[in-house]
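User: Could you check the structure of this?
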Amino acid sequence: MARHLVARERRAAEAAQLLGIDLAAEHDERRDVLAPDRVRDAPSAALGWPYWLVLIALVLGIASIVPGWLGVLDGHTHHAAKAPAYAIWTVVALLGVAGAALSYSWSRDGALRASGWFASGLDLAILRGSAALDRFILAPSARIADRTSDVIFASDGAIGRMSIASGIVASATTRAPALPVLIVMAVLVAVLVALLAPGVLR
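Assistant: Sure, the predicted structure tokens are below.
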């Protein structure tokens, strides 16, 4: 086994030399970069900001559960939650943290596999839900909108043609003699009265 390792390292060194790579020089440079003498201390002004940001985040997080602060933000009146509500959500958070810690401590690989299965299952559910939403709601709604627009367009065209025809008829009647028009109107009124008479519609 040792001979095989030595031979493998020797072949790797020979291949690196053929490619013009100096492994020893790269190792020395990498070691020099990580040397404590070459690592500078961060400026003192940059060290305090992270702590201030953490403190501000904690203050804002605590203030978000204060009804008075919420009223200042949105200008509405907020009633304080009851103690059982705080207790319930505190217990839920503690159970979540405890479950994650216990599962990770019992079996790290099992916890990682379970989280991977849960993530893949959630992704699959989201994909199927989006596909069902697209198939049963979005696509039919789009087809209904398209067909409605087609019907509206066709009806607008029909109304336009009827308007043009009525205009043509009106202009023709204005140019026609008065006596034939009166005769046609009298005939139409007679036919309408005959159709609406009680003897016809029984």
